[in-house]
Amino acid sequence: MSSSEALLDVSNLDVTLHTERATVRASRAVTYSVAAGRTLAIVGESGSGKTILNLAPLGLLPPGVTADITGEVRFDGKLVLGDGVNQIASHRGKDIGVIFQDPLSALNPARRIGSQIMEVAEQHLGMTARAASAHAAELLKMVGIPDPVARLSQYPHELSGGMRQRVVIAAAIAAEPKLLIADEPTTALDVTVQAQIISLLRQLQKRIGMAIVLISHDIGVVAGMADAIAVMYAGAIVEIGSADDVLVQPSHPYTRGLLASVPRLDTPLGAPFRGLPGLPPDLSRPLKGCAFEERCSVALEACGSARPPLQPVAGTHAAACFANVRAALAATR
Amino acid sequence: MLKLVYKRFIGAMMLIVIASVFCFLLIAAFPGNVALVIAEQRSATVSIEIVHQVEEEYGLKDPILVRYGRWLGDTLRGDLGRSLRTGEPVGPALLRRAAPTFVLILAGATVALTIGLGFSLLGALWPGGMVDRGVRALALVGASMPKFFIAALLVYAFGVLLKVLPTYGFDGPSSWILPALAIGIVPGALISRVTRVALESAMSRPYVTTALAKGMSRGRILVRDAVPNVLPVVVNAFGIHFAFMVQAAIVIEPIFAWPGVASYFVEAARFRDYQVLQSSLLLFSMFFILVNFVVDLIVLTIDPKQRRPRSA
Predict the structure, then answer these.
(1) How far B205 CA sits from the closest chain A CA (Å)?
(2) Structural domain boundaries of chain B?
(3) A97 interfaces chain B, CB cutoff of 8 Å
(4) I want to staple A239 with a disulfide (CB 3.0 to 4.6 A). Which of A231, A257, A300, B147 is the partner?
């Protein structure tokens, strides 16, 4: 991925979170980029820092949490974070839309859904209330909600979970952002609705031409949507590359474990579930070596004392592992 | 929804009936012999004959249920009897004195609401800031001061030292200011605390993160997202304090020589004027119950989940 044409270019991003009780190094030296109109999936288990990595620079942290952020973020060719600059928050809602995991709590229960969409158009597109209302109805239609005009005056509790997520999406794309950050957009929904939301996102992406950063732990969702995949473990990217490379030829032992733990239709019934043994490390403690060492089946001696850097495997495909995993795995096959 | 309103209405009506029983019993259990009081008013030398005559005349020897029934019947017909002290009809007197009390309570409510909403919003806009901490301290002080003390302070400051406001009487808007402040500051402080806490919890909800992600400013989020969610809390708190202002008026009206129902009540209590006491007590109770009924209705209407239950 060359960074010259990238819409979003993140380099060496470190996020350290401070709460009253603890200080957590949520992400370290994270570098990635997303091209306009493409989809990057950031994959990892809960607590790997994938959400914080994306929301902290936007200033969208849970209350009571503060963050130290270092590194650089370029958006649309402009430096928006780093070197004393922090303007990324001014792009919120306008060039950068965000959709959240839980559509039940993401919408305000005391406000009509119309006004929750309209305010984006009023604020960022300078529309009058009347124009914004028409725009909101159009958006609801675009996200597949029937009878949009009547829906505008309804409250969130009058809609189903899937419909609510469509409303959240409508509000996020109301100003036609260049980038959509989708934080586990289907996790709270049931499986049939998940598929609908994913196909809706792809459809909207084509229509608006926006880039999507898809944060997910669901390999199925990721495989269906992503052009590129970044795998996060313990706050760092351990493997990054095109979706095909990462899914078909995973290089890092963690990625392999993650893919192996996905139940497949062709495994015989009753076969034992192949999960990853062990737990991710506590990010509030300093790490000496590779964060995955304790759970790794191919760990070398060096893994306990130094952090492996991201190294190219082939082309744009890179992995952070000392063991020449591909070769090692090829030998065991 | 309509069924709920109906149920609340029936409940309020029943409460009024129960309140009327208590108003009557309370006065009937008043220490002192009512007949003796009336007899004392009639002649300088009280004999047992006069007392008996009074008891006969007012039916004071009848069983208590009969007396309650008679009082209730008279009251429902609009006959509230005559004041034992002045002999004037109680109904018109109460009506005449209701206006000043109404003004006092409305003005006090305005003060309470302004303080309550204004300070809590300012505090929530800059949480932990100077305003927030100052208001929190003031609210604590305000809430712990007795109202007559606040009244005395206000009179001293604005009436005696600055000499800018009248300190007694019911004589145009400038005379309303001190009594309204005296009656409204404490409820205002309490409402601001409750509202501030509710706003704080509303501002930490996920829909606020959504609004931030949509590029809305904190102030706008506070007003458009948080306030609609805390309205039920505010209305409930306000309703309670509004209703209790009748009680506060009993302290405040005499201090400011306010010609309202509450000072009428206090005078009547001094003279054991039970005709006046019963009726004004019933009036206070009805006001209290009515305010609570209206508050319930408002809370029902502002909660969209109550107003528009989801039809499957």
Answers:
(1) 8
(2) 2-76, 98-307
(3) yes
(4) A231
| Residue ranges of A 140-169 with Cβ closer than 8 A to chain B | 155, 157-158, 168
User: With an 8 Å Cβ cutoff, are A58 and B209 in contact?
Assistant: no
Q: How many whole angstroms separate alpha carbon B109 and alpha carbon B51? A: 46
Chain-chain contact of B203 with A63 (C-beta, under 8 angstroms): yes
Can you tell me the ipTM of this complex?
Answer: 0.86
Query: Rounded to two decimals, what is the model's pTM?
Result: 0.81
Q: Tens of pLDDT along B74-118?
A: 888 888 888 877 878 888 889 899 899 999 999 999 999 999 999
Which domain range does residue A167 map to?
96-174
Kindly list the residues from chain A whose CB atom is less than 8 angstroms away from the CB atom of residue B310.
157-158
- A107 and A113 Cβ atoms separated by less than 8 Å: yes
Report the residue of chain A nearest B201, measured CA to CA.
A63
pLDDT over 90 percentage in chain B: 28
Which single residue is written with the structure tokens 């009206």?
B253
Out of 3.10.290.10, 1.10.3720.10, 1.20.1050.40, 3.20.10.10, the CATH code matching B98-307 is: 1.10.3720.10
Do B304 and A124 lie within an 8 Å CB cutoff? no
Q: What is the mean pLDDT of chain A?
A: 86
User: What is the spatial distance between Cα B137 and Cα B129, in angstroms, rounded to a whole number?
Assistant: 12
**pLDDT tens-place string over residues A77-110:** 889 888 788 888 889 999 999 998 888 899 999 9
Tell me the percentage of chain B whose pLDDT exceeds 70.
98
Does A71 contact chain B (CB < 8 Å)? Answer: no
Kindly state whether residue A294 falls inside one of the protein's structural domains: no
A198 vs A162: CA distance, rounded Å: 11
Evaluated on CA atoms A276, A282, A283, A287, the torsion sign reads: negative
Q: Note whether residue A166 is domain-resident.
A: yes
Distance from CA of A63 to the nearest CA of B (A): 6
The tally of domains found in chain A comes to 1
Number of Cβ within a 10 Å radius of residue B234: 22
R_g over Cα of chain A: 21
A122 inside domain: yes
